[in-house]
Each structure stands twice: as C-alpha cells, then as structure tokens.
Amino acid sequence: PGYVFSEILGRSMSFVLSNNEVRSFNGIANRISGTARWATSGQEPAQGVTVTDGTRSDVTDSNGAYELVAVPNGSYTVAGSLSGYVVYLNPGVNPVTINNNSTTVDVWVQPRYSITGTVTLEGQNVSGQEVNGGSSIGLTNTNGSGAYSFTSIPSGTSVALSLSRPGYVFS
C-alpha cells in the first residue's frame, strides 16, 4: 500500500516508509527541471551531465532528465558540467527566478576541441611568440619549445590563427 502526503508549505517533515527508507520533505514545492541534449544532434539525450543552481545539483539520467527539487523562492544561475565537454544554456535563460513556481531549463552539450602546434623560424622553435586565435578563442604564447595550445574550443567554432611577426610558420 502507498501513502499520500499533502505538501504543507513552510514545514519540514520526515517519513519512515515500510521498508525503513526515510523520505524528507521541506514543504517547498518549487522545482527547476529540464533535459540535457547533445547539441550536435539536437534531440539525443545526454546522460551524466551535472546540473546545479549553485546550491542543489542533480545528474541527468539516461533520458537526459534532471530535477532540482525544493528550490526556495529567489534568483538562481543554472549551470551544467560534463568532463571533456562544453555545457551551455540558451542565451537569456539566466538568472532563473523562482517565485512559487517551477520552471524548465534545458541544457546543451557539445565536445571540446583543441588546437596545438609549434611556431618555428628557419627551422628553430620560437618561445614567447604570441599566437592569436581571434575573438573566438583568444591569445596564447608559445612555451620554451615553441609549442602553443588552445583548449576547450566548442564544436563549430571558426578559427583563423595568426602571428604578429612575418616569417613565422605553423607546424
């Protein structure tokens, strides 16, 4: 047999079920929920994404679904993370305002890419050379071996690398 408990706003309660499982309820019915999807397909769910509002967090299931429960009224910044991937929300979603309501916030996941190489001049590696990746990925400098690296580049980012001195080549 199941039990039905009514939500009583502003009160915290705990219940011990017949299998000794403890269920707590803080009286706040507000929720932030949504789905994580792969940006490359647009519809395929992304499992294992951690979604947080800065206080509460949940990990998406095999359907890409997550749910942050018992969210008090207030303003929240929803963010997601998945190692090796860029997780983002549609522009204008944050901050999320909760005022005795629940809301849906979907997140998108896409791979991160890297660009690496070496700057040389007449066959010699050049250290301390600025490499410009433009407004999409920024600037970096070569290390002592002439190597440079841009990491965490979202899929679909257009990149044109340039150097500030003529005569240098990428390899």
SSE layout:
Elements: E1 13-16, E2 22-25, E3 31-38, E4 50-52, E5 57-59, E6 65-69, E7 74-76, E8 79-81, E9 85-88, E10 96-98, E11 103-104, E12 107-121, E13 124-125, E14 130-132, H1 134-137, E15 139-141, E16 147-154, E17 162-163, E18 169-170
Structure notes:
- The protein has 171 residues and is mainly beta.
- The chain is 2% helix and 45% strand.
- The chain contains one helix and 18 strands.
- The protein has one helix at residues 134-137, and strands spanning 13-16, 22-25, 31-38, 50-52, 57-59, 65-69, 74-76, 79-81, 85-88, 96-98, 103-104, 107-121, 124-125, 130-132, 139-141, 147-154, 162-163, 169-170.
- Strands 3, 6, 9, 11, 12, 13, 16 and 18 form an eight-stranded mixed β-sheet that branches. Strands 5-4-8 form a three-stranded antiparallel β-sheet, with no helix packed on it.
Shape: elongated
User: N-to-C terminal Cα separation, in Å?
Assistant: 70 Å
- Record field, number of beta strands: 18
| Low-confidence regions | 7-11
Helix content: under 10%
What Rg is obtained from the alpha carbons, in whole angstroms?
A: 24 Å
**How is the biggest beta sheet arranged?**
8 strands, mixed
Strand percentage: over 45%
**Helix/strand structural class:** mainly beta
Topology as H/E string? EEEEEEEEEEEEEEHEEEE
Average pLDDT confidence is 85
Q: Count every helix, treating DSSP H or I runs of 4 or more residues as helices.
A: 1
Concise account of the structure shown:
This protein is mainly β and about 170 residues long. It contains one helix and 18 strands.
